[in-house]
Amino acid sequence: MAATFFGEVVKAPCRAGTEEEEEEEEQDRRDTPEDREVRRQLARKREVRLLQRQTKTSLEVALLEKQSCSKFIIAVGSNASAFLSSFVMTSGVWKEVGCAKLWNEWCRTTDTVHLSPTDAFCVFYQLKSDPSVFLCQCSCYIAEDQQFQWLEKVFGSRPRRNMQVTVLTCRHVTEYKTSESTCSLPSPFLRALKTQKFKDPVCCPLLEQPNIVHDLPAAVLSYCQVWKIPAVLYLCYTDVMKLDLVTVEAFKPVLSSSSLECLVKNVPESTEILKKLMTTNEIQSNIYT
Amino acid sequence: MASRYDRAITVFSPDGHLFQVEYAQEAVKKGSTAVGIRGTNIVVLGVEKKSVAKLQDERTVRKICALDDHVCMAFAGLTADARVVINRARVECQSHKLTVEDPVTVEYITRFIATLKQKYTQSNGRRPFGISALIVGFDDDGIPRLYQTDPSGTYHAWKANAIGRSAKTVREFLEKNYTEDAISNDNEAIKLAIKALLEVVQSGGKNIELAIIRRDQPLKMFSAKEIELQVTEIEKEKEEVEKKKSKKST
């Protein structure tokens, strides 16, 4: 026990452990009904929901559980999403099959009920000509406590092993640990990380130690490693994290990989579409010139 | 390790880094690309114009600024820092002219700007300027000059250089294509600057601004039409080269 400046006596935290007599009192003090209610509400607010955007009905079964999936391509971030939009989605007809709605402290919108089309955080598409090919464009930050929920709702509790997962994402080049100075790095550049079951050749060098992968891409790779699903992550280190032509084009070597080569048809036309995508996102802040 | 030594500008890390200066160099990369080329009889500055909001007056968003009649500079990085540096440089140019009755040399004003930047890397309570600058001009001896400064306060003379976003890509292009032939002709030097920018500029000629200084002539800013003409010529030349290649292969 200790006295504070104001003379009140408070229990000082003790590393030796609590005394048994006081334990029962403490347990009652710990969990009031209000605390439990607040925790319940917070959990409900942070719940990851997968639903059909048009009908706003929740998907009862995990996305990849009800249909067989041979290829699943996930783009995390604006540059990776733009790459898929221009090079992959323009080469076929894709149908939107669901979106993931979630809220966390990083979200700009506080309204989790009425999500506008531009807010949809993760959108899932299915290729009409080959319904076993799925694609996801994720433009939000998924917090650590939500990542497992997202994985379960997308992959299901017992994912099939006969699919191949490809993840594309970007990271700032200053987070790349190397003995060289960042000024001499050829950014943007690609690095790959794969699960044990992924046997195809990768189209760039593997990620060197001690670099690690973070956030949703790390969660997806870990999940695939545990469930023995072949998966590969292509990570682009760039010095421009917002939508940028040079960064998006740095993903081009991935077009020759086994996951994407049959999905891409017209590269020059896709490059033109990419340039148009850039112009619609052009207005920049006045802080930097 | 970095986090313990990167908050104060006046503190070295154990391995000799001044992290605030290095972080200032990252701020430079947030600015759009600027390229400078020193020709035989011309100096060229080309920049990627950032798109302005609908209600914003485009004339107030300038990346190429004249420091004196014979010197101009382009910058990349924090807009407000650039304004302060440019104002100080302009005052120094006039002060020099009034004191010694001669216009500044390009090297003098570059050294002045670099010294100013270096002071801010050694003062307590201040942060470095978050800009790199390309300074071009002709001295009285008629020799063209191109200098580059960075937030650390260093300055070097260059034949051609780029700063800002994707500067590395542009510099690599210049290293491959900067030849004595390419810069002997004024028009070719201008085309080289535009080609270098087109490597990284998102939407072609309409987002490029260009300025040149020829020997004994004042600074000339290219109009959008003139730039468009140059871009069209460059595209025609590209097509012709590609046609020749395809003919050879068949």
Automatic annotation (TrEMBL), chain A:
The organism's place on the tree of life at top rank = Eukaryota
Q: Supply the alphabetized keyword list.
A: Chaperone, Cytoplasm, Endoplasmic reticulum, Proteasome
Example GO CC term: the record gives:
proteasome complex
Compositional bias ranges of the Basic and acidic residues kind: 27-38
Keyword Repeat present in the record's keywords: the answer is no
Locations listed in the record: Cytoplasm
Q: Which Pfam family, giving just one, matches this sequence? A: PAC1
The main place the protein resides is cytoplasm
- Region annotation Disordered: where it falls in the sequence: 1-38
Note whether Chaperone occurs among the keywords.
yes
Q: Which InterPro entries match?
A: Proteasome_assmbl_chp_1
What family does the entry list? Answer: Belongs to the PSMG1 family.
Subunit and partners? Forms a heterodimer with PSMG2. The PSMG1-PSMG2 heterodimer interacts directly with the PSMA5 and PSMA7 proteasome alpha subunits. Forms a heterodimer with psmg2.
Physiological role: Chaperone protein which promotes assembly of the 20S proteasome as part of a heterodimer with psmg2.
Q: What is this protein called?
A: Proteasome assembly chaperone 1
* Originating gene: Psmg1
Automatic annotation (TrEMBL), chain B:
Q: Where is the Proteasome alpha-type subunits domain?
A: 5-27
Top-rank taxon of the source lineage equals: Eukaryota
Check the record and name the InterPro entries matching this protein.
Answer: Ntn_hydrolases_N (IPR029055), Proteasome_alpha (IPR050115), Proteasome_alpha-type (IPR023332), Proteasome_asu_N (IPR000426), Proteasome_sua/b (IPR001353)
- Name the Pfam families on file: Proteasome, Proteasome_A_N
Q: Is Magnesium a UniProt keyword of this protein?
A: no
Which protein family is named in the record?
Belongs to the peptidase T1A family.
Q: What is this protein called?
A: Proteasome subunit alpha type
